[in-house]
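Lab meeting, action items carried over

1. Structure of the two-component assembly. Owner: GW. Status: complete.
Input record:
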Amino acid sequence: MANTEPLLLKVDRLSMAFSGLLAVDDVSFNAYNKNITAIIGPNGAGKTTVFNCLTGFYRPLSGIMLLYHGEKRFDLQRMKDFRIAQKAKVARTFQNIRLFPNMSVLENLVVAQHNALMRASWFTVGGLMGFRSYKNKEKEVIELAKYWLTRTDLVEYADLPAGNLSYGAQRKLEITRAMCMEPVLLCLDEPAAGLNPAESSDLCELLLFIKENHRVGILLIEHDMSVVMGISDYIVVLDYGKKIAEGPPESIRENPAVIAAYLGEEE
Amino acid sequence: MIQRQKQNNFNKELKDALLTALITFALTVLLFGVRTVQQPGKLGIETRWSWVILSVIAAFFGRLFFVFCTGLINNKGSYFQGVADNITKIGGTVKILTTVILVLTAILLPLLPFSDRYVIDIATLVLTYIMLGWGLNIVVGLAGLLDLGYVAFYAVGSYSFALLAHYHDLSFWVCLPFAGLFAAMFGVILGFPVLRLRGDYLAIVTLGFGEIIRVILLNWYQFTGGPDGISGIPRPAFFGLEFKRIPPEGTASFHTFFSIEYSSLHRIIFLYYLILLMAFITNLFVIRLRKLPIGRAWEALREDETACRSIGINPTNTKLTAFALGAMFAGFAGSFFASRQGFISPESFTFTESAIILAIVVLGGMGSQIGVVIASIVLIGATEFFRELEEFRMLVFGALMVAIMIWKPKGLISHRAPTVRLHT
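Predicted assembly:
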């Protein structure tokens, strides 16, 4: 089923080492548009390292990561972190929430459109003079933010500092901020960590909504198996930096190598 | 029952006030009470018990009044918090009124009956610091880059104007944009090496940068005049009209043009309005910038740099613009300073100046524009007005800082209004 949509991301023989320790070892996988691809594995398997390589926070030791964006192709391994977000339109969230706590919820979302707003304000000069083009663009951005806030039920908190929100709301806001970048690839690093079951199912609904209604591929790192098995189309399993299995959820559930990695092998 | 409670409270308050009076006595008995004086042939002691008694009485009743007003004696735990909240209310709800009063006072100040040369001079000084504070607010308050060498840009602005005037005979108005430009350039020069640094490390490097500039000015004798400084810096003219008693042949002076009696006060008042205008423009600029994408990017950078990278904000450009724009305003203020004094030397640009400007921004409340105004008035104005206290002046300065930091650890105005709102 994954093949019906165009290829979005091709990771080929990716390796990353920290002073001799191979954290990611020769990992290859593909991700497709309008698909949720989950990366799972026990603690320390190198999942977050893969994300950090994809988003440019780490420079990989070897391997290529290609992002297909219509006609265009981006070599992610050669790009700087903020360029990946700006040009290749890869958005991410963090394991420990990284919002701008003293700025209001709405401001957090408006900042996500920084580059578009910068261009519209003629790199501040036009904005200082109060050009109409900037004002219109700002309105547009606020409308986009409002759309996502309504979607995530955060509209009533729009003018409060983001740091005042509850933990679950902050998690949602971080995803909302990433979506306000209008990304083609959304990387979520343990979005369900610390959420209660109700919030978890809320999150699943949101992710399915994004998948259905927006042209975006989702990469998901998650430990909560009910989330992973419930919503992902394809699963990649890592252990000690190596890929040990991949396939649709049904096949992963029964894969002996995966069971061994999670539960230990039988003597 | 309630009667007894009240009685009990009153006893508590009385005890509290007595304790305050006791502390005041202990503090003042030696500081105010005795004083050494020169007597023929020996050093004598003069007593001033009346001062001690007056301060003890003032402390006792002041404290009693304070405690009554705030009614805080019951919730001892949050004593300072209660006071702080009251001040916040003043900052939050009456903010517009405060602003209007401040602006009106500023505009009408030279016309007020008590305004003599001295008052206007102090006001000019306070406004210079307000302008510097607003400039530094971009770097420290918005972008969150702790800059301990801000005075370097002030020096660059002053010296660019002074040197241009000295070597090329250019006037204040021609040099003003250049001074800002040079300072902004130095801001970028400083910005580049410190891009990777944050917090304490950044503070140390900027501190070093400030000293480097001062030492260069001090030692480059042939060009800057070293410790002798530069004198004879031209004064700013009012649309080409100078403020001279006897204008040079063929030109008009301010008083001859308007056919009024010559007064040396004219120039003082003109300088006052000049810095008021410059500060006002700075303020408008910074308020405007804060609501533009660049301002939001600065604030986002202060909050979390990693998150900024993840949403595509270029941290290099963002930091450099903050340094450059902050430095530019210091440059403008610097060239005003040079022009007002008529003489500058490296002495005027020591680390103490940086520290005072930073103190103004921090005490005012990081990122708050009106906070800077209040902090400048309190720190600069109050220390100038307390000049009669002589050696106790710095004591007052220190006490003020301690008091503000105890009551308002986040600065006088810590309230932050969002730059865009969804619900009005």
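2. GW to write a short summary for the group page. Key points so far: The first helix of chain A runs from residue 47 to 54. Chain A touches chain B at residues 55-57, 81-83, 85-86, 91-92, 94, 98-104, 106-107, 110-112, 114-115, 117-118, 121, 123-124, 127-128, 138, 142, 145-146, 149, 155, 158-159, 161, 177-178, 181 (CB under 8 Å).
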